[in-house]
Amino acid sequence: MTGAMSWPFLRLYILVLGYFSANAILNVIIPLQGNAWGATNTTIGLIMGAYLLTTMFFRPWAGQMIQQYGPIRILRLILIINAVALLLYTFTGLSGYLIARILQGVSTAFFSMALQMGIIDALPEKDRSQGISLYSLCSYMPGIIAPLLALGIWQSGNMTYFTITMIAIAVFTGVLGYTARIDTRPSTATKDSSDQRTGTIGSLKQLITNPTLFTCSLMMLTASVVFGAVTTFIPLYAKELTGGSAGVYLMIQAATVVIARFTLRKKIPSDGKWHTSFIVGALLLLTIAAQLISLSVIIGAVVLYIGAICMGVAQAILYPTLTTYLSFVLPTHNRNILIGLFIATADLGMSLGSIIMGPLSGVLSYSGMYSICTLLGVMLIVFTLLKRRTMERGINNLLN
């Protein structure tokens, strides 16, 4: 096999599988454990949101450091920090969970940027979208089995299994990460550090002044609020449904993401052009999914699981499509930093989905909160249609 499916890249995808397995388990354990300790939805949302909120702040710096020192050197250091975070979960309480989530946020900022930038820089343009899609696919694959594993650990009442699992993941990712290789092309040569810092400061302005980056970032931010609200509160919401299971929902959603990303990986545009209908289709699925989840408390668990399928397809399409598009239209000299800023908006959205939607669910109920997510989806569709001409100009926007 060659290109995105060659052995060096397969090793990276396996590393991604191991790394994100821990978070797939923690997405179930933390809300349940927090609820058992008497934490409010606001507190649970804050702890869950701290992870990606921290990741958001470190993304731009991660892009700069990776561009300066290379992905492999950064990867090896960050896996040590991640191992420390995983160990903290095994013997601390809520405050320790918060610290561990922050450490995880730091490590994920560098880990995901190192892998994605390494893949983008090492693959030819024709294989770029496949590489990003396969990376994203492997980051979701743990969600197929891990939620059920987490529920099994929780229901057993023996958290020793949780401790063993966290240690095993830390060791596995450490060993695999220290033997990984990424051969980047010469175009990724590093710059003087002072130029890097100037580029980072200047790049922050482009979140507003660059219309393509601004539009993609705002879309990803809003969509991620919905994704974050689902990930954080489904373990608690499913308990209100007759026959509802958070493990089954998360398994279906993750399996849908994996299947859709694999089967559609060659369909995701990799030509540097903006495809409005493709994006609107993904956003429509996101909107339908949020509404189905909201109605499931009335209609039943079957509707919840249909919503999981729609949500999974939306996740499978939206992120790699926008990332691939930006990898073509952004200037190469600070592309890593700008893509880091874009991914940071996705992290911010996921965090806000936990932090803001937590109090809203306390006021409106979980069903009402997911209705708000439906409204966000409708607004996104309208926004995308209004920005159609701006985005279709693509790379020409950089010259304005």
Main sheet properties = none
| CATH fold description | Growth Hormone, Chain: A
Straight-line distance between termini? 42 Å
Unreliable spans: 186-198, 396-400
The first-level CATH class name: Mainly Alpha
Give Rg in angstroms: 20 Å
| Residue fraction in strands | under 5%
| H/E topology pattern | HHHHHHHHHHHHHHHH
Number of H- or I-type helical stretches: 16
Oligomeric state as shown: single chain
SS-based structural class? Answer: mainly alpha
How much helicity do the residues have?
over 70%
* Average pLDDT number: 81
Protein name: Major facilitator superfamily (MFS) profile domain-containing protein
InterPro entries: MFS, MFS_dom, MFS_Exporter, MFS_trans_sf
Membrane topology: Multi-pass membrane protein
Pfam families: MFS_1 (PF07690)
Structure overview:
The protein has 400 residues and is mainly alpha-helical. The protein has one domain: MFS general substrate transporter like domains (Growth Hormone, Chain: A, Up-down Bundle), CATH 1.20.1250. Helix content is 82%, strand content 0%. The radius of gyration is 20 Å and the shape is globular. GO terms for molecular function: transmembrane transporter activity.
Present the secondary structure layout:
Blueprint (H helix, E strand, L loop, with lengths): L6 H30 L4 H29 L1 H18 L5 H29 L2 H16 L1 H15 L3 H19 L14 H17 L1 H27 L8 H18 L12 H24 L1 H29 L5 H21 L1 H8 L1 H21 L1 H5 L8
Helix pairs in contact: 1-2, 1-4, 1-5, 1-6, 1-7, 1-9, 2-3, 2-4, 2-8, 2-13, 2-14, 3-4, 3-7, 4-5, 5-10, 5-12, 6-10, 8-9, 8-13, 9-10, 9-12, 9-13, 9-15, 10-12, 11-12, 11-15, 14-15
